[in-house]
Design brief:
alpha+beta; Agglutinin, subunit A; eight-stranded mixed sheet; five-stranded mixed sheet; 14 helices; 48 strands; 23% helix
Length: 834
């Protein structure tokens, strides 16, 4: 090592003399630097197609100098690679140059003191080395006469930082041990190597993992021939292609652009998030989802993406209120901590295996992200039947699955040994795994015993039970047939009331895979919501009335009557209904991005909503409400406007949903009274909550709350601040009075904010939540204020519930004891208000 240092020092002095004394020394041009040229501060070289440029740039505070590669044709000049990321240039940048030297090195030199600040390495020597910036963004050092990529002396693609460029092969060479992996920047203005890294992990069957130091914080799941198991939304598209390459030397992952006009920025952030953006020239910025042809890619996406959150043999389900459950036939290892939300110890088998007797069976689990494969074994040529036999013969094998699902029924064999770690439920495109179980777990009538008397007794008991069961079944069928005939008459009468297409129960059942839990996409006061696909390929959302629902037939009819007569671009479209037997269902168009609350209140997803998107959502909701209050054939008051009742389509356009609690008022009436207060706490106006008076101004109040939530990314109900005990409305009003409204802004909007527009929107939101109904504007005025920046706004007065936090809290508590409120903000009813 000492001799190498001396050699580099000698080389630096020789290069210094060469640069100082050579009058023919020239600046680099075009895409190549040869041994007679230098690159100084202010100079750049560009790739042959003009896509990338290499040069010195400044970053940080105070400024530090770096050599890096940037997009050339994008105004943002986004940096994609940094050479001297861990040794920034702090001295006078004019003293620093980039130089190519024999035997094939690329050096950053300080020509003032002949110091080598950064250098590449080489495994062999050439007589005429050059450095070239390729149009892929790869900076290479090669022999001037040899352009074969296999003979490159060095290339930047072997040392990616936080940007994963198309063409970079990330993985490991199992012969040499060399690994190519990503290392995130330490912060947004510090490109030095941080603790966050991303690897294509070759231990077991390949999967991509993100680590913080040595700790895994996220994994994609294994490659299944189409995509990573845990990223179902990473579908094939016309923009780029991606694949896993495996051979005897190693394994790598890579993706390639199919269109040269597209710019992709796939980055690993200092927070450990892998996110993809694409440059949209019309908007002049990077967008996470520029169009309908490509899904948004951000991982980790939710809490279930946190590695091992449910412990060994646990199953994470983001749509389940408990988040973590045990795999079927497993129990919590420690019940007390598990029930309190400490799931780290995971689950254990309910019944121990008995592999030596050969009686174990395998149970299929479908719709899941496959467990961690770091301790797995695989064979890419076996059939599923052969895979089962291999697992059955090995008592250490706990589960098996196919490797490749690109063809039906799939191929290859993947075996797991020991506990199953980091498994989650996926609502769509999940995979199947077969888990070893004790045979007794599947026994129905008879146990397994060597005592013949016990067997005969079990058979006798089973026979008597069967006879008794058949008798009950016959009686039940008779009663059922009588009940069905009675129901048919009622259904015929009900169906005549609805002017909507009627779906058969069998059609809905097939479309939702028999209401599979994997198809469940939501839950509310009405019941469960499932995603389905009709026979013609149309995606639908099915709202199924639960028998234990807080809403019933009246709300069901109410939603059909109102929404069937309402046609507006900002309302979710009702396609039809199903009324058959005990079942009552509503069938809607499927909203790709689900509900607004899933974005604005999520620390990761909220990054996807920049200010122009949020402002568009606010305007869309306002237009929908204006149509309800003024332009529809019925004057309708929604009564339950909230973030979870605003759905987002593929292009993030808002659609108001859930009209089950809506009421119409006739003629010029704008107000009504009820003894049954319904709605969601946090969004209900004071006069409605306390006195049962609802009006179009009640909806205006809810809209104002929603505006402030969209801007702040915080819920009104449950909002807390270290300096006071006000709710979100009170906090916003206090900032408004101090002329500090901009402090309400969601931190993720800092890069996209239009400060005057945001402050004006907060002002409008506060006008909508004023205590007195007569002070609040109607929706036509609200829309005018939003779209006309020259319109003067009146001063906002104190909002409703601003001074009543204790009263509201007590109401929450008393309501909770009656079971009227749940943490997912379902609608509720309060009987006989004051």
């Amino acid at each position: 090592m000492e001799s190498v240092s001396l050699l580099l020092l000698l080389l630096s002095w020789l290069l210094l003399l060469a640069v100082s004394n050579n009058p023919n020394s020239s600046h680099a041009t075009h895409d190549i630097i040869n041994s007679t040229q230098i690159l100084k501060d202010g100079d750049t070289i560009s790739s042959s197609g003009g896509r990338f440029e290499l040069g010195f740039f400044k970053l940080g505070s105070p400024f530090k100098q770096y050599l890096g590669i940037r997009y050339k044709q994008i105004p943002a000049k986004t940096v994609v690679w940094v050479a001297n990321r861990n040794v920034p240039i702090i001295a006078n940048a004019s003293q620093v140059v980039l130089k190519v030297a024999k035997p094939g090195l690329l050096l950053v030199l300080n020509i003032n003191n002949a110091a080598i600040l950064w250098s590449t390495n080489t495994s062999r020597a050439v007589q005429n080395p050059v450095a070239q910036l390729l149009d892929s963004g790869n900076l290479v050092v090669r022999d001037a006469a040899d352009e074969n990529p296999d003979n490159f002396l060095w290339q930047s693609f072997d040392y990616p930082a936080q940007t994963y460029l198309p063409g970079v092969r990330m993985g490991k060479n199992l012969v040499t041990g060399k690994e190519v992996y990503m290392t995130a920047w330490r912060s947004d203005d510090d490109p030095s190597s941080g603790e966050i890294t991303m690897h294509c992990d070759p231990s077991g069957y390949p999967q991509t993992v993100i680590r913080n130091g040595s700790t895994v914080i996220y994994r994609t799941g294994p490659w299944n021939g189409l995509r990573w198991s845990g990223i179902p939304f990473l579908s094939r598209n016309p923009i780029y292609t991606y694949d896993l390459v495996m051979d005897q030397d190693g394994m790598w992952i890579a993706y390639q652009l199919l269109k040269n006009s597209v710019y992709i920025h796939l980055t690993l952030t200092p927070a450990g998030v892998l996110q993809r953006e694409m440059w949209v020239e019309q908007g002049g910025k990077w967008y996470p989802r520029p169009g309908p042809m490509i899904e948004t890619l951000v991982v980790p996406l939710d809490v279930c993406d946190s590695y091992g959150i449910c412990g060994p043999n646990g199953l994470c389900n983001i749509d389940d209120s408990a988040t973590c459950t045990c795999l079927d036939k497993f129990l919590a290892k420690y019940e007390g901590p598990w029930d309190m939300g400490n799931w780290s110890e995971g689950c254990v088998r309910r019944t121990a295996l008995n592999c030596s007797e050969g009686t174990d069976v395998f149970v299929e689990y479908s719709g899941i992200k496959l467990p961690d494969t770091r301790n797995s074994w695989f064979n890419r040529t076996m059939t599923l039947g052969e895979c089962e036999q291999v697992c059955r013969r090995n008592c250490s094998c706990t589960a098996y699955s196919v490797v490749d699902i690109s063809s039906d029924p799939g191929s290859g064999c993947l075996l797991w040994f020991g506990d199953l770690m980091d498994t989650r439920s996926l609502s769509q495109k999940g995979q199947s795994i077969f888990i070893r179980m004790a045979a007794s777990e599947l026994a129905v009538f008879y146990g397994v015993s060597s005592n013949s008397k016990v067997k005969r007794r079990n058979i006798l008991i089973g026979s008597l039970s069967l006879a008794f069961g058949l008798t009950l079944l016959a009686l039940g069928l008779g009663f059922y047939m009588w009940k069905m005939k009675r129901k048919e008459k009622e259904e015929m009468k009900s169906k005549q009331d609805f002017e909507l297409p009627l779906f058969n129960l069998s059609t809905i059942t097939r479309g939702t895979n028999n209401f599979s839990s994997n198809n469940k996409i939501g839950e509310g006061g009405f019941g469960l919501v499932y995603k389905g696909v009709l026979e013609d390929g149309m995606e639908i959302a099915v709202k199924r009335l639960s028998k234990t629902s807080m809403q019933g037939l009246e709300e069901f009819k109410n939603e059909i009557i109102y929404i069937a007569k309402l046609q507006h671009r900002n309302f979710v479209k009702l396609l039809g209904c199903c009324i058959q037997g005990e079942e009552m269902m509503l069938v809607y168009e499927y909203m790709t991005n689900k509900s607004l609350d899933a974005f604005i209140f999520d620390s990761i997803k909220s990054k996807l909503l920049d200010w122009p998107m949020r402002f568009n959502i606010i305007n869309g909701i306002a237009r929908g409400l204006l149509y309800l209050h003024q332009d529809s054939q019925l004057r309708i008051i929604h009564r339950d406007l909230k973030a979870s009742n605003v759905l987002l389509d593929m292009d993030m356009n808002p659609k108001i949903s859930d009209f089950g609690l809506a009421r119409s008022v006739s003629g010029n009436e704008i107000e009504a009274n009820t003894r049954h207060v319904v709605g969601t706490l946090g969004y209900m106006s004071p006069e409605y909550t306390i006195d049962g008076l609802f009006s179009i101004k009640s909806d205006v109040f809810s809209f104002g709350v929603l505006v402030l939530e969209i801007i702040s990314g915080k819920r009104n109900r449950g909002f807390s601040h270290p300096d006071h005990h006000l709710n979100l409305l009170g906090h916003a009003w206090m900032l408004y009075k101090k002329e500090k409204s901009v402090e309400l802004l969601d931190q993720h909007l800092a890069d996209s904010c239009d400060a005057p527009q945001i402050i004006r929107s907060i002002h409008i939101g506060l006008l909508c939540v004023q205590q007195c109904t007569e002070d609040r504007p109607n929706m036509s005025s609200v829309l005018m204020m939003l779209t006309n920046e020259n319109l003067l706004l009146s001063e906002a007065k104190e909002p409703g519930f601003f001074t009543k936090r204790k009263m509201a809290t007590s109401e929450y508590s008393s309501s909770s004891t009656r079971g009227d409120i749940s943490i997912n903000e379902v609608s509720f009813s309060l009987i006989d208000p004051r």
